Amino acid sequence: MSIKESSDELNPPVVTTGAAITRASRLNTVSDYFAIVFATWGVGFIPLAPGTFGSAVGVGIFLLEEWAIERASIFARWHGWDADLLGTLIIASMLLLVTTISVVGTWAATRVEKLVGRKDPGIVVVDEVAGQLVALFFLPFYRAGLPMVVAGFILFRLFDIWKPYPIRKLESLGGGLGIMADDLLAGLYAAISLSLVTPIYLLFS
Fold first, then answer.
1. CB under 8 Å to 116, separation ≥6 — which residues?
2. pLDDT confidence band for 172 (50 / 70 / 90)
3. Which residue, 141, 181, 2, 172, is CA-closest to 61?
């Protein structure tokens, strides 16, 4: 049995059946420092609800991504690129980004657990970053605009805090996999909900 923390103060520490982390390690290598930086994204050390700030980082990455997509679309149209090819490249780049953050985040979260000697330490927010990106993945930003981005942020935070079945079950997975999996599923639930809300918003806006 071990105590699992949370990146959001609205989720109190809980007892889990995962392997206990009994002893902290020292920061000795460049990979240790990289793991800390990647797992916390600079906001994990904020004492008040760092998970919410992690989600905000995910929103910021999404907005930067949409800005880059807009510039790429202008470039593609100027050079006569096929629209289907451009759409495929955009989806592939978005999937690559989410996958990279998730895979590297799983490794980083596992390493940080050992470095701080606690299970799912509250400073780890890369799971919220990845989950928020999943929540916004299908959002047609240039038609829906900021209101739907805000809705996606709120929906993800609700699912991340509420943790409907089987999200909480995934927390029992060991190491960084357990840290990442529940937030990725919360992001998927939020994405599905947002995909239902967005057409209604576009219809009446």
1. 21, 24, 123
2. confident
3. 141
